[in-house]
Design a protein that fits this description.
- It contains ten helices and ten strands.
């Protein structure tokens, strides 16, 4: 059963000048699942994400990815291992086309990032994969459009495409639905379900209908501590969760 756990945190704690933002959190994410991290504002969700990918260094606790202790590794090293935080790692260049944004991202695993002076022949060799990723996220008709001209929801799709270019085994999505219109939410939810078919997804999300629809497992944080964990049907009926999260009107 332990082989099914791709990401595990034990005793994860982060203090800022005496304020404990995350306190003794244990988290186990099953391989090929969609796992949601939820909680009211200030619950410690984003801090937890930053700790898992080492944008912040834990005060205490350990993190294991694929059975390997990654505590103390750099964010770049963790990304190379296949654990990628979308919307942080991915860079969208507003004045490059959609296709060129994805081509730049595809250079990263080759360690050729941002070498715009490379020959057109080298860059053209990435075109087929770039167009494949663009089609996969529904951006085929926008391939030659500058990213700055994309509607907001389509920019989110491009960010997912550039993250997929890193070929991650696990994606961490920080509020992928934030600021999206209803029709974009449906599209991005479908896209997350699609990319999760052969990957693992851990996401922070406030939209509870999305969480209910997509998630296999939910971890609830409140005031930096783990309050509850389980499937949506079980967690949503938990009295403390209703009080701390649902009852606050967030969602």
């Amino acid at each position: 059963m332990a082989d099914d756990i791709i990401l595990e945190a034990t005793g994860l704690t982060k203090e800022f000048l005496g304020f404990v933002a995350v306190k003794d959190v244990d988290l186990r994410v099953r391989r090929h699942s969609i796992h949601a991290l939820i909680g009211p504002n200030g619950a410690g969700k984003t801090t937890c994400f930053n700790l898992l990918t080492h944008f912040l260094v834990p005060t205490s606790g350990r993190i294991r990815f694929n059975g390997n202790d990654i505590t103390g590794s750099s964010p770049a090293a963790i990304a190379r291992m296949g654990l990628v935080r979308s919307f942080q790692i991915s860079a969208v260049f507003p004045h490059l086309s959609v296709r060129d944004n994805v081509r730049v991202a595809l250079q990263r695993p080759l360690r050729n990032s941002f070498q715009f002076w490379r020959s057109e022949r080298v860059l053209d060799s990435l075109n087929a994969r770039a167009l494949e990723l663009i089609d996969a996220v529904g951006l085929g008709p926008y391939a030659e459009l500058p990213a700055v001209e994309l509607p907001y929801g389509r920019k989110r799709a491009l960010e997912i495409a550039t993250t997929l270019a890193l070929d991650p085994e696990m994606m961490l999505l920080d509020e992928p639905m934030a600021g999206l219109a209803h029709e974009d939410i449906d599209r991005i939810a479908a896209l997350i379900r699609k990319v999760a078919a052969d990957r693992t997804v851990l996401m922070v999300e406030h939209n509870m209908s999305v969480v209910a629809d997509l998630s296999d497992m939910i971890t609830v944080l409140a005031r930096g501590e783990k309050l509850a964990e389980g499937p949506y049907g079980e967690v949503s009926k938990h009295p403390q969760v209703i009080e701390a999260y649902v009852g606050t009107g967030h969602g």
